[in-house]
Design goal:
- By secondary structure, the chain is an alpha/beta fold.
- The chain folds into four domains: about 50 residues, no CATH class; about 180 residues, Nucleotidyltransferase, domain 5 (2-Layer Sandwich); about 220 residues, no CATH class; about 90 residues, no CATH class.
- Helices cover about 50% and strands about 10% of the residues.
- The strands form two sheets. A five-stranded mixed β-sheet has the order 6-5-4-7-8. The chain has a three-stranded antiparallel β-sheet with strand order 1-2-3, with no helix packed on it.
- α17 packs antiparallel against α18.
- The protein is globular, with a radius of gyration of 36 Å.
Length: about 675
């Protein structure tokens, strides 16, 4: 820049420099060392192995790992880094195995008493489907109630130890005992899929076999499924059996529900298993089949009936305030104070209970919706009131109640614990005969084989009675007598045609779904006490031809000899249940105190092992339906984090208690678990 003469350039502003004393400049910031905190030991990630270091003089700044036998810097990040190290993980596995041996092997009598308490408590949690996290609060309560009990003072039962006991002490030994049994006898396999509460798709495997005088349904495995196709399910099943070293040749029969992926004709799990194991007997669940028959038959009736059941339940389930006015109408008309029932899609024949409840509350519901349609005129309320005011709707429901009752009776016969596979053919024929007698001439029903008769055949249609002579049930018949005087002939004709179509469709569905021509239905007739006492059939040689695996377990000639001589036992009674009849035969001994019929026992036990229903896997109290109710009770919303091995341990324990007829209070730990 150019400045004029005599003018000096502007001076720059001086920067203020902060003066620091030499003492402060040379002083460093002190380093903070984390001190030991006792609260870390209560952390589930650190409990059992982390403690304050006893080695170092500055132990308040050091932590000690009992698993690795080393101390390290006492910082949260240092502890986390050590816990996730590979060395710590490897040593933890070894320690777990040692701790397992401490669970199993105890010499001190006081420790044995403590061990018994631990096992009883874990068995109690398994039996009553309680969360495993309850073990610690229960132990605190027991110590408070019994402060002088020395055994309780020695117990340190947390969630991890309880899980180890359930899996290692209960689950593994019980599974080993089951596998040992399955390696030595023929058994049936029942499978089904489920998606648990943690949205994990799994396949449950139940095995069924006859031992002693009782049918055993035992839980084998719970396999996580990634490929839910037919090939994927078969692969998972075979891998599960091969992993446990169970011979595939011992599989007598396979049963499942009636979905296409399970029992379809083209490419299903059943067809793949039949290719791999040609001698396996395929059994479809009769409870599933009869449910499907009823579902298709109901399509012949007006759809408004099913809509009425759903809409009425939805109306009351969404608001508790609506229940109080209904209770007033129930008291006024003298109806029982019952709630409406939901129509379940997966519940067998649940429509029967819904229809029964509607008929019971019909008058109270009519009065209620008459009032509601006036105060709250919505489309839904108007539609419900219109159906309730239609007298034909009431007649349809009475007709349904009568017909679904006999289907339910058929269904309930095959959800019991009594082996009644041989009854399927007889009961199906009786059911068809009962349905046909409502709309066909009785002489024709008596003389022909209705299961083999084609409903499309002219002879079938020519023996159908007139509409007025169709039997609808007692209640529906009385209602129709009143309607004939008040309704048009056209409406009455439509009603009778719908009911007739329902009955004919029921017969068609039963004929198509129940394959009574399968050889197995003829084979199992020898289980019937009446047939066995009269030596029908004369020989059991055809059983060996149908089940070639029997040659490895019994002699055919000796079996025939024993079969023909067993009917002369004086104590036999052909009017007793099947299991009781054969129990007398199996327990008969000769002068040398040896079984009189060892070969016959093997053959009959194999036939008794056939799955007559898969009800046990989805509903625990009736043989696949029981399991899923049991499984969903085991893996509750508060137990969604349970590992698969823990769930299997729980299920093994539950099924063991059930098969032995035991409860936790009567459980003898040393007898029920092989250590």
């Amino acid at each position: 820049m150019n400045y004029e003469s005599g003018e000096s350039p502007p001076s720059r502003p001086t920067k203020k420099v902060r003066r620091v004393s030499n003492r402060k400049a040379l002083t460093k910031r002190p380093f903070y060392r984390q001190k030991w905190r006792e609260g870390w030991t209560s952390n589930p990630l650190f409990s059992g192995w982390l403690s304050k270091s006893p080695r170092s003089t500055s132990s308040k700044h050091r932590a000690f790992c009992a698993t690795c036998n080393m101390d390290f810097q006492c910082g949260k990040s240092d502890i986390m880094r050590h816990a996730t190290s590979q060395r710590h993980k490897d040593l933890s596995m070894q320690v777990d195995n040692k701790s397992l041996s401490s669970i199993l092997l105890v010499n001190d009598p006081l420790d044995k008493s403590a061990q018994k308490i631990e096992r009883k408590l874990c068995a109690f949690l398994a039996e009553h489907y309680l969360p495993i996290s309850l073990c610690e609060p229960i132990m605190l309560l027991l110590r408070d109630l019994f402060p002088n009990e020395d055994a309780l003072k020695r117990i340190c039962l947390g969630e991890q130890r309880a899980s180890d006991i359930i899996h290692q002490v209960f689950g593994k030994p019980l599974l080993q005992d089951l596998c040992k049994v399955l390696k030595e006898r023929m058994f049936s396999v029942i499978i089904d899929e489920t998606t648990d509460r943690s949205t994990t798709k799994q396949m449950s495997i139940i095995v069924q076999y006859w031992e002693g005088n009782k049918m055993h349904n035992s839980f084998l495995d719970l396999v996580e499924i990634h490929d839910s196709s037919a090939s994927g399910l078969v692969t998972a099943l075979i891998q599960s059996l091969e992993t446990k070293e169970i011979p595939l040749e011992n599989v007598l029969a396979f049963s499942s529900d009636t979905t296409n992926v399970m029992m379809g004709e083209k490419h299903s799990e059943a067809t793949i298993i039949r290719e791999l194991l040609p001698n396996v007997i395929l059994v479809e669940c009769p409870s599933h089949l009869i449910h499907l028959c009823a579902s298709y038959a109901c399509l012949k009736l007006p759809k408004s009936l099913e809509d009425l059941c759903r809409n009425i339940h939805i109306h009351f389930s969404l608001s508790s305030k609506r229940q109080d006015p209904l209770n007033e109408f129930q008291n006024f008309v003298g109806a029982a104070p019952h709630k409406t029932l939901a129509l379940g899609q997966t519940r067998w024949l649940s429509l029967k209970n819904c229809v029964k409840r509607l008929l019971e509350q019909w008058e109270a519901l009519g009065s209620y919706f008459t009032d509601v349609a006036f105060t709250d005129p919505t489309d839904s309320n108007d539609a419900i009131l219109e159906s309730l005011n239609d007298k034909f709707t009431f007649a349809y429901l009475e007709f349904l109640s009568y017909n679904l009752s006999r289907l339910n009776n058929f269904n309930s016969q095959f959800q019991s614990e009594v082996p009644n596979f041989y009854c399927i053919r007889k009961e199906v024929r009786n059911l068809i005969r009962s349905i046909c007698s409502d709309f066909m001439s009785i002489p024709y029903v008596k003389k022909c084989d209705l299961h083999a008769l084609d409903p499309k055949h002219p002879l079938f249609s020519s023996n159908i009675v007139s509409a007025e002579n169709i039997y609808l049930g007692v209640m529906a018949m009385e209602t129709m007598r009143e309607l004939k005087q008040k309704s048009s002939a056209h409406d009455i004709k439509i009603f009778y045609e719908s009911c007739l179509n329902f009955l004919i469709e029921s017969v068609k569905q039963i004929q198509n779904r129940f394959s009574l021509s399968e050889p197995i239905h003829a084979i199992v007739q020898c289980l019937n006490p009446v047939n066995a006492a009269n030596l029908e059939p004369k020989s059991l040689a055809f059983v060996f031809d149908a089940i070639p695996q029997l040659y490895e377990y019994a002699d055919r000639s000796k079996t025939d000899l024993e079969w023909r001589s067993h009917c002369f036992i004086e104590e036999l009674n052909d009017q007793v249940p099947c299991s009781q009849y054969w129990d007398i035969v199996f327990n008969k001994k000769n002068a040398l105190n040896l079984p009189c019929f060892p070969n016959l026992r093997v053959v009959i036990s194999v036939l008794l092992s056939l799955p007559f229903s898969n009800a046990s896997l989805e509903r625990f109290n009736a043989s696949m339906e029981r399991f899923f109710s049991n499984f969903n009770t085991t893996k509750t919303p508060k137990r969604t984090q349970l590992k698969n091995e823990t769930v299997c341990g729980l299920m093994h324990m539950v099924y063991h208690l059930r098969n032995k007829g035991l409860t936790t209070d009567g459980l003898r730990i040393d007898d029920c678990i092989s250590l």
